[in-house]
Design a protein that fits this description.
The complex is a heterodimer of chains A (282) and B (231).
Chain A: H1 2-25, H2 47-58, E1 63-74, E2 81-91, E3 95-102, E4 106-114, E5 117-122, E6 127-132, H3 148-156, H4 158-166, E7 168-174, E8 177-186, E9 189-199, E10 205-211, E11 217-229, E12 233-243, E13 248-259, E14 277-280
Parallel strand pairs in A: 6-14
Antiparallel strand pairs in A: 1-2, 1-13, 2-3, 3-4, 4-5, 5-6, 7-8, 8-9, 9-10, 10-11, 11-12, 12-13
Chain B: H1 2-17, E1 27-28, H2 32-47, E2 51-62, E3 67-78, E4 82-89, E5 93-98, E6 101-106, E7 111-116, H3 134-138, E8 141-148, E9 155-162, H4 165-168, E10 171-179, E11 185-192, E12 197-207, E13 225-228
Parallel strand pairs in B: 7-13
Antiparallel strand pairs in B: 1-8, 2-3, 2-12, 3-4, 4-5, 5-6, 6-7, 8-9, 9-10, 10-11, 11-12
Classes of the chains: A alpha+beta (282), B alpha+beta (231).
């Protein structure tokens, strides 16, 4: 039986070797595989070099103004979705104004943050929710499903900058992408605070997740399209942000994006209308 | 949910019916009998209206950005209670009132919101000045009436400030301009609590045009999400 097995292996081996030889003789070589001209094979990077490239390509825009289209989806089945147009102004790191409106139905919401305090005004309820700007929020109160800093984090990667400076980072590589992990210490152990998917040739961030100390996802952001502003790097054109705890799936699409706008600080402060109920979330 | 529908209804009507506060040479109607006569004239004319069609242009100023956005579309009404309010630009959207039901159609979301007109009486305000007396809408507001213009351009202007606390939560004021020639709302101006200002101008207005029934027919595509507020 052993002799038969040896003969079988020998025959298969000869067949394979000769087959490979024939394949080679047909003249198919590595040079026949054509890559796009823009393609540059990834080079080995240290974690610090990778973080530096990510910052360089994704966090250079200091201010911008844009038109938005926002689709709110409740992830609980059959809970419906809602669309709002909007105007947005942002100044890094934590100043923001987002005014929602519709042509049928008028104003929908007004969201502002002056860097210390945020306000979320729901027009049809005549209520304004306010509290300190903090990401992630101390608690995920059901009264409000999204805060200005959730959006700022999705667009500006503010916490990526601070996390990667202060925390432990490492990455793994899969063909086409770097996956960067940012770990934070909690007690004796470290836990993953951030996870980013980054294209290996352009360093565009195409997805990033934020976790809390309980290791559950606080925010999951998928970038569908990007603008590339010369000398200022990439900026999301369309992205989806999911907050599992709030059952919220938000798709934001930007148009008429204007980087480098100088804003009057007044635009980031919300003036509470008369007869408005104020709900402090702190 | 009722509150949300009320919001839509009032905002819709307000943006559907007004815009004139910048008008000069307005003379306030302070005499009650004259005011009642004007309301009666509008109501007499309304009773003669069996159908109405118009094109509209809506200009919205978004605060604090102070930027304007323009939209346009068409409006169709047919007695007793059929309305199609269709936006062509910047996005296609539509509101339909028919057979005691209302539909808000959002093609971009592949979504239709359905509500009952009987359950939400306030949606009947969409018919104010057409299917319903305009004065029935005024009940919710403190109303000032002005008259202005001359000859063919003569008009009445109603300036409304909400006294109802629910409406006052989101609306500062709105104005309705009614042209003397046909006594149908021709221009509106809405000021919201956010500071947003929405003006709406009706052009190519036709009183009692022939409108096919098919204009008011709408079949919900099977792939659309249906949110039924009546359930």
């Amino acid at each position: 039986m052993n002799a038969l097995r040896l003969i079988f292996i020998a025959v298969i081996s000869v067949f394979c070797v000769s087959g490979c030889a024939v394949y080679d003789k047909k003249g198919i070589k590595d040079s026949a595989v054509k890559f796009p001209e823009s393609y540059q094979p990834p080079r080995y990077l240290t974690t610090d070099e990778l973080i530096k490239e990510i910052h360089k390509n994704n966090t250079q825009i200091k201010t911008f103004k844009a038109d938005t289209k926002i689709i709110f989806k409740n992830t609980i089945r059959n809970a419906g979705s809602f669309q709002s147009l909007g105007k947005m102004a942002v100044e890094r790191p934590y100043k923001m104004r987002l005014r929602g409106y519709n042509f049928i139905g008028g104003a929908t919401f007004d969201m502002a943050s002056d860097g210390k305090t945020f306000w979320v005004y729901i027009a049809q309820e005549g209520k304004v929710y306010t509290g300190s700007s903090e990401f992630p929020p101390k608690s995920d109160l059901p009264a409000i499903k999204i805060r200005p800093n959730d959006i700022l984090e999705s667009v500006l990667f503010n916490n990526l900058v601070s996390y990667t400076r202060e925390k432990i980072s490492f990455y793994e590589y899969i063909p086409g992408y770097y996956i960067l992990y940012v770990a934070q210490k909690s007690g004796e152990n470290y836990y993953i605070r951030k996870k980013l998917w980054v294209k290996d040739t352009t360093f565009e961030i195409i997805r990033h997740q934020t976790f809390d100390e309980k290791r559950t996802i606080v925010l999951d952001v998928l970038v569908h399209e990007l603008y590339n502003f010369k000398n200022q790097g990439y900026f999301p054109k369309k992205f989806e942000m999911i907050r599992p705890a709030s059952h919220l799936d938000l798709v934001i699409e930007f148009s008429a994006v204007e980087p480098g706008v100088e804003f009057d600080d007044k635009i980031f402060t919300f003036k509470i209308p008369e007869n408005t109920e104020i709900i402090n979330l702190d | 949910m009722r509150k949300k529908l009320l919001f839509y209804a009032v905002m819709f009507f307000a943006s559907a019916t007004i815009s004139v506060s910048e008008e000069t040479n307005l003379k306030q109607v302070t005499d009650e009998s004259e005011y009642n006569r004007i309301i009666r004239e509008i109501e007499d004319k309304r009773e003669q209206i069996s159908s109405f069609s118009s094109e509209f242009t809506q200009i919205k100023t978004i605060m604090p950005f102070e930027e304007t956005e323009k939209a346009s579309g068409s409006f169709f009404y047919k007695k007793p209670m059929k309305v199609v309010w269709e936006f062509y630009s910047p996005e296609k959207n539509m509101v339909i009132l028919k057979d005691k039901r209302g539909f808000i159609v959002t093609p971009n979301l592949k979504q239709v919101q359905v509500f009952g007109l009987e359950d939400n009486n306030r949606f009947k305000f969409l018919l104010a000045g057409l299917g319903e007396p305009i004065s029935s809408f005024f009940v919710e507001f403190d109303v000032m009436c002005f008259k202005g213009g001359e000859g063919e351009n003569k008009f009445y202007l109603f300036r409304l400030v909400p006294k109802d606390t629910e409406i006052a939560k989101f609306m500062e004021s709105f104005e309705i301009k009614v042209r003397y020639e046909d006594m149908v709302p021709s221009f509106t101006k809405l000021v919201e609590k956010t500071g947003d200002i929405t003006t709406l101008t009706f052009a190519k207005r036709k009183i009692n045009p022939a409108i096919k029934e098919s204009v008011f027919e709408y079949k919900i595509p099977p792939e659309y999400e249906v949110i039924d507020y009546r359930e």
